[in-house]
Design goal:
The chain has a domain at 25-93 and 410-461: Roll (Urease, subunit C, domain 1). It is 34% helix and 20% strand. The strands form two sheets. Strands 1, 2, 3, 4, 5, 14, 15, 16 and 17 form a nine-stranded mixed beta sheet that branches. It has an eight-stranded parallel beta sheet with strand order 6-7-8-9-10-11-12-13. The chain has 14 helices and 17 strands. By secondary structure, it is an alpha/beta fold. It has helices spanning 117-128, 133-149, 169-180, 209-223, 246-259, 271-281, 285-291, 309-318, 326-331, 339-345, 365-379, 386-400, 434-440, 467-485, and strands spanning 36-45, 53-62, 65-71, 81-86, 90-94, 96-97, 152-159, 183-190, 232-238, 262-267, 299-303, 321-324, 349-351, 418-422, 446-451, 454-458, 461-462. The structure holds zinc ion (ZN). The site of zinc ion has 6 residues, from loops.
């Protein structure tokens, strides 16, 4: 990974160890010098509480944090500036935050193309049951590379398929995220309700309740880092009401609260899930989650498509978050989540790619546009605007992942997770409003993306991995899986 002090865009570098440099504000007054990056001459959408924007402005990055954001050029007299970026023709935004994904699906894209959720799952479970560590590492690298290239600086993954003897699958994902250099929430998923227990997955694809809880606790103890600027959080994440026992849901909530980590699952995704819950538990998914301890400000759920007014009120009352996944919901014809109603009620909402077996594109920046479009199909032209879509993908996502104090907006003191979108090319140059160009226009190229001040995309290329090598590895592992699973 680049150390941030070199690169093709660098101009007029200052000294690396200026004896007059200011002390690092992030180093607790230890007196250590801090290297500054100055970005100037670009439009800026801060996504702060007031929605402050600058037609032409600057961002000063000091170490891993943002030191200043404002209109016009950066203040004169800054010490220890190691890099100065002339960002003319660009829009600076906070880095995008993805709130729901299944990385391993990168190597099972394009299957069950015309199915709804339950049929799609039944076709894919036997394939997924054959994954192993090299496959998951390649798939995670592919998923992460695709997202990082498109402006994601905080990724998350919900991994819930753990075949016996498959190796350290969570470790493979964590390694891939570290190689890319993105901030990461790894949600240790689980399934323990096989078909013989009334669940949807085949029995060979599930773990025992005890195994799932033990492995989740071990993942937290081994990997979770709660410090400011942490690159890795762990969440506890039983998969869904139709693949998980009531006991596992209850016990996972107790475990997560004992350890101080967040809780994640799928909820209210389809009509079939609603029917399953009513038949098995005598209530809808939201009421069922409430009885198992699964509503709260430390919980976020993917989809939340089939929610009535009382369900939305329960999410708002408890601060339960939502990962809105418009492309996946459309691909599986699940329906359209009531995002405008959720926002009006005060529910925290972020955006999610979802697994790439139900969203083959695997990009978050195109989900801003899709969120706006599908919500207008349901709620009319005022349902969601471009700035609300950008907010969902940044500060909304950070809030859903419990990181709004650290990332999700460009404000002094927050982590320098930011993206420069190139908007002066063919696809965008004729749109005057840069936020509209980003959200409504074609996928905008990312020139520079910083995570904690460190470049993960530089001149449009990933700094941490060789993109072509990742592509080759994903093709190789997809073919290996197809062969082993007997679908090639
Ligand atoms: Zn999902």
């Amino acid at each position: 990974m680049s150390n941030g002090s070199t690169g093709p865009n660098q101009a007029a570098p200052g000294p690396h160890h200026d004896p007059d440099a200011n002390p690092d504000p992030a180093a607790g007054g230890s007196g250590a010098t801090v290297e500054r990056t100055v970005i100037e001459n670009c439009a800026i959408a801060t996504v702060d509480a007031a929605g402050t924007e600058y037609a032409t402005g600057h961002v000063v990055v000091a170490g891993q944090v943002i030191e200043a954001v404002g209109a016009g050029p950066a203040p004169a007299g800054l010490r220890n500036v190691v890099r100065r970026v002339d960002a003319a023709g660009h829009l600076a935004t906070p880095g995008l935050v993805n709130t729901h994904h299944h990385f391993y699906q990168w190597i099972t894209r394009g299957l069950a193309q015309n199915s709804g959720l339950f049929d799609w799952l039944v076709e894919l479970y036997p394939v997924w049951a054959r994954i192993d560590e090299p496959m998951v590492h390649a798939a995670a690298s592919g998923s992460l590379a695709m997202m990082a290239r498109g402006g994601v600086t905080t990724a998350m993954d919900h991994h819930y398929v753990f075949p016996r003897g498959a190796g350290d699958l969570l470790g493979a994902e964590i390694r891939a995220a570290a190689e890319l250099g993105v901030r990461f929430t790894a949600a240790r998923g689980s399934m323990d309700r096989g078909r013989s227990e009334g669940g949807l997955p085949p029995d060979f694809a599930v773990e025992s309740t005890e195994e799932a809880l033990r492995a989740t606790e071990s993942a937290i103890d081994t990997h979770h880092d709660a410090s400011f600027g942490s690159m890795l959080h762990i969440a506890a994440a039983p998969c869904s009401p139709f693949s998980v026992s009531t006991e596992l849901l209850r016990e996972a909530a107790v475990l997560a609260r004992r350890k101080g980590v967040r809780l994640h699952t799928h909820g209210s995704e389809t009509v079939e899930e609603e029917k399953f819950c009513r038949e098995l538990f005598g209530m809808g998914p939201t009421a069922y989650f409430e009885t198992t301890g699964w509503l709260g400000e430390d919980v976020w759920m993917a989809h939340c498509v089939h929610m009535d007014d009382a369900d939305i009120a329960a999410f708002a009352r408890t601060g339960t978050g939502v990962a809105h996944c418009p492309s996946s919901n459309a691909r599986l014809a699940a329906g359209i989540a009531r995002v405008p109603d959720m926002l009006a009620a005060g529910v925290p909402v972020g955006l999610g790619v979802d697994g790439t077996a139900s969203n083959e594109a695997g990009e978050l920046h195109t989900e801003l546009r899709n969120a706006l479009l599908v919500n207008r199909l349901r709620g009319g032209p005022a349902a969601l605007d471009a700035r609300q879509a950008l907010r969902l993908a940044t500060l909304g996502g950070a809030r859903v992942l419990g990181r709004a104090a650290e990332t999700g907006s460009l404000e002094p003191g927050k982590l320098a997770d930011l993206v420069l979108w190139k908007l002066d090319g063919l696809g965008h140059a004729s749109i005057a409003d840069p936020v509209a160009a980003l959200v409504l226009g074609p996928a905008a190229p990312v020139t520079l993306s910083l995570v904690g001040g460190r470049p993960v995309v530089e001149s449009g290329r990933l700094t941490g991995v060789d993109e072509d090598a990742v592509a080759r590895a994903t093709r190789e592992q997809a073919r290996r899986l197809a062969r082993i699973a007997g679908i090639d």
